[in-house]
Specification:
With 229 residues, the protein is of the alpha+beta class. It is built from three helices and twelve strands, in the order H-H-E-E-E-E-E-H-E-E-E-E-E-E-E. It has helices at 7-25, 39-45, 125-133, and strands at 52-56, 67-72, 78-81, 87-91, 102-105, 138-146, 150-162, 169-179, 189-196, 206-211, 219-223, 226-228. The strands form two sheets. Strands 1, 2, 3, 4, 6, 9, 11 and 12 form an eight-stranded antiparallel beta sheet that branches. The protein has a four-stranded antiparallel beta sheet with strand order 5-10-7-8, with no helix packed on it. Strand 2 (67-72) and strand 3 (78-81) form a beta hairpin. It is elongated.
Amino acid sequence: MSDKPNYVLIQAVLDSLRQDLRLFLDPPDGTKEHPATTCLELWLCQPNFTSGLYYIDPNQGSPADALLAYCDFTAGGRTCLSPSQPQVPIKAWMKDSGTENSFHWLSTLDGGFQLPQFEYPGASVVQLRFLRLSSRFVTQNVTYSCSSGHQQGQREREIKFLADTRRQSYLGALKDCVSEGAVPSGTRESVFQFESEDLDLLPLRDLAVFASGDLAQEFGFTVGPVCFS
């Protein structure tokens, strides 16, 4: 329809054909030398593979920066990345916080994380950007636990979960930990579930607890993998 060819469109078509041809002639196998773009791509190319750890390379550059991911083929080929330090140990986090009636990021407290914030091995800014381009949905869970011999009571305190943007946070509520038998019924653990189509919000990077009331309560968290699909 035009005297001038649309070189941008032509290049896009050629790139798409090149990708399809690569998958047909030399399908990825999830090794460091031959990673897939995502777990979904690996599942489509290798339908007999079982769920497990495989290498992926979302930016499809040199395989040198490929990262290890858990591929959940029972859920349609989800790509899951675990934090390098998933356990936030059970302790009295607020005891030495210094000030009450304010939020305290656990990574900044004395004896906090070994890393400044939650890190996901191999998940660089570039790799996460390309992984998001190949995904539509993202999920992540965080488990809150009281110390042994304690259960969740009735009183609550606020908690913030720092998003990957570092500018936004999810806001939630923690039930205070009390001695077993102090309330008629209660659980020792509860799970926060995060699901979003805004892929820039996850993975989570830090936790902030509001210091108020009994600051000697002991609690901890387990940060689950972030899964893209």
